[in-house]
Amino acid sequence: MMERKQRLETLRDELVERIERYRDHKEQRAGPLDKDMEEQAIELQNDEVVDALEREAEEELRQVMHALARVAAGEGDLCEVCEEPIAPGRLDAVPFTTLCRQCAEPR
Fold first, then answer.
1. If you write DSSP's letter for every residue of the chain in order, what string do you get?
2. Which of 24, 29, 42, 85 sits in a 20 to 30 Å window from 36, CA-based?
3. Cβ atoms within 10 Å, residue 12
4. To 5 degrees, how large is the angle CA 88–CA 94–CA 91?
5. pLDDT one-digit tens code per residue, 24-66
């Protein structure tokens, strides 16, 4: 459980840094758009990509924080739906999961 907690904490720190980089990028881009229409289109497209990456990182960070809270409560290795143990291989592959494979599959 300690190894998983360390992996989650490392992942949390990486995600926080990534989100900060995305926000820094957006702040640097707060100035006026380039006068060239083609350059404007590229800048706007890049901003949309950065926004999407930021949202994705924020969602993953939310999942990591939820998993860390479950680990702290001593429930980190149990599925939060069926309360059965989550397979170690699944925890290795997706350290922030809180569901066993069966409960995670769409129905």
1. -HHHHHHHHHHHHHHHHHHHHHHHHHHHTTSPPPSSHHHHHHHHHHHHHHHHHHHHHHHHHHHHHHHHHHHHTT-TTB-TTT-PBPPHHHHHH-TT--S-HHHHS--
2. 24
3. 17
4. 15
5. 877 765 555 556 666 656 666 777 888 899 999 999 999 999 9
pTM of the shown model:
0.78
Say if 98 falls within a structural domain.
no
90 domain residue, yes or no: no
Query: Per the structure, how many domains does the chain have?
Result: 1
Residues of the domain holding 23: 2-76
Is 107 inside a domain boundary? Answer: no
CA gap 100, 98 in Å, rounded:
7
C-alpha to C-alpha distance for 105 and 19, rounded to whole angstroms = 29
Q: How far apart are CA 57 and CA 12, in angstroms?
A: 10
